[in-house]
Amino acid sequence: MSGENINRRNFLKYFSVGLGLVILGGAAYYISQGITGGKEEKKGIRAYFVPSTSVDEPWVGVVHRALLKARDEYEIEYSYTEHLAGGYQQVPAAIEEAIANGYNLIFADVFGCEEEARNIAKDHQDIYFVYGSGLSPMDPNVSVFDNWIHEPAYLCGYIAGALTESGKLGVVAAMEIEEVNRLVNAFKIGAAKYGEKYDKDIQVGTRYINSWFDPPKAADRTEELISLGADVIYAERYGVFSVAKSYKIPVFGNLLDQWKEAPEIVVTGPEWDMWPTVSYVIDMIKKDAWVAQDLKDWSMMAKGGAKLAGWPELHDWRNRLYKHIVEKLEETKVLDEVGKMIDEILNGTLRVPIVEGPATTDF
């Protein structure tokens, strides 16, 4: 990565150049899956979501679930693009198709096609666009969002600092870009805070899989970190749990509440909830109060868009986690501290730093 900060948009733009060569004439193949709920909403909102991957992928899945809820809560129409064979290369065509079909509220993941998506918005200023984007909003009709779950990532790092016996924590992450860096760095800062408070030497080893989804590679990186002494892992990507469970090592999930995938070892994790963002956007449209804006705040803890998964009971942690993990949590009373820290985050007295530069590795 040459030490230069890049974001998800730039990484995927470079990555997709080769892919674009095999998409003849820019032709787009995708399946549009309609989901219509009840009567049409009185303001005529017809929402559409264009993801860059299947909605089974966690990031886009969070957006999709929030829009499903909006369909039911607001009684609006909602449809989405179920599959894009060419990823970001085909997102602009899917957006155009949604507009042609009469949708007037377009959510889309455009990190890998920012310029093309914004040009479409310029040509359709009567349409509301809400883009997953690494850039700024664009007047009059483009608002932007992303997950901003660095606050619960910090809390997970603090808990991990209490759990480690070896003093070595591991992180298995997607790639070295700003959107991932801020989570990895927040986790490291939280762990360092615990170490500083209790005079405990804590190191964090970070490994990237250079993909959004590659479970076998994530499993390999987990094995490597454990072989080097890591006894707690932050699973920023899928593929960690099965390996960690074989060693009975506590882990932290990411984006979703993942405790059911490995109840004995998943302590908690940073969870993203797009419902505050989606409901805010629809309310503003209904009130004729739309303003193009960065919706970052609605994906943070104060507005309910970020949370510590399962808090406060953590899904009956005393009866599901391995005994040695439970004993460590009880011995350190770290969850009591975390409860106070959550209160401080919510009332504004604790501000978690946003560090998007490269996350260094200690081992």
Q: Can you give a write-up of this model?
A:
It is a single chain. By secondary structure, the protein is an alpha/beta fold. The protein has 2 domains: 8-146 and 274-303, Rossmann fold, CATH 3.40.50; 150-269 and 309-347, Response regulator (Rossmann fold), CATH 3.40.50.2300. 40% of the residues lie in helices and 17% in strands. The chain has 12 helices and 13 strands. The chain has helices spanning 8-20, 58-74, 91-100, 114-123, 150-163, 178-198, 215-227, 241-247, 275-286, 317-320, 323-332, 334-347, and strands at residues 30-36, 46-50, 77-84, 105-109, 128-132, 142-145, 168-173, 203-208, 232-235, 251-252, 266-268, 270-272, 306-308. The strands form 3 sheets. A 6-stranded mixed beta sheet has the order 1-3-2-4-5-6, sandwiched between helices. The protein has a 5-stranded parallel beta sheet with strand order 8-7-9-10-11, sandwiched between helices. Helix 6 (178-198) links the parallel strand 7 and strand 8. Helix 2 crosses helix 9 (275-286), helix 5 crosses helix 6 (178-198) and helix 5 packs antiparallel against helix 12. The radius of gyration is 21 Å and the shape is elongated. The two termini are 19 Å apart.
